[in-house]
Specification:
Elements lengths: L36 H4 L6 H12 L8 H7 L4 H13 L3 E7 L5 E7 L62 H12 L12 H16 L4 H9 L9 H11 L17 E3 L7 E3 L21
Antiparallel strand pairs: 1-2, 3-4
Amino acid sequence: MAEAQLSAHVRTPSAVPQAGVTHVRARHTERFTVVGNHLAQHRELSATAIGLAVHIQSLPEGARVGIKALAARFTEGETRIAAALRELETHGYLTRHRTRLPSGRVVTRTVCHHRPDSPPPPPPAPRRSALHRPHPVPGPAPADLPAPPPQAAQPAPHRAPPAPQPLPEPRTTNLGRHRTAGDFLASLHRDDPRLLLPERDIRRLTPAVAAWLERGTPLATIRTTLTTDLPHPLRTPAGLLAHRLTTLIPPRTTTTPPPPKPHPFQECRGDCGRVFRSSTPGHCRDCRPTPTVNAPWP
């Protein structure tokens, strides 16, 4: 018999594994997310945490990823979702921090790290003017926790009013000048009935008026300064007069009075003919007659 000829190809062993998963791969051209095996095959994360991480990585910027928003999306409850988010924070896949908006509302900003060792995002650029403002980008989702009640505004610290300036006083004591100043203050009600001062205020303001008189200010000038352009209504007459006497006092004169002129020369009318100074003619000191003393009564 003739030898048999093998016309069929030798059968190769099948590439399909006998057990385990079989991949039917397809090339994605749209709506896909690249996930690293460090997350998909993480040995310490729960299935819920890995699934949430993949879901969050597939979301666009600004999507809501709060506990309530995720619980409304999946069948897991808020407790399991909160625990899974804490797992992702522990292993560096999520960072969350609370911040206060200019309106006073407190929100939670969530940053998703596609790799735990990836650098943090750069800080937001400063605000520009309306002409160069870029297109608005929705920010991260706020937290689902209620914002705390706004704190009451703190009252401004109480500041004590400045101490009033002391009233001017004369350098020298002159009873006549003080008497003139007191009479002047007691007569101010003749110019305006509202300037009728009690005796206590007259005694307090008298040294200030005496200081004006000491500086050579006429009484007419002082009266005009104190009684012109009075406010309406005049609540504290003595306080207004004290303010004007303190703030409007004229400066002291720096000129010194000229020295007194000496008496003219006089010639003695006695026998010595000596010349001496005197306001009136007569005898010098040596030629003046000695006054006689009356003898006692015998």
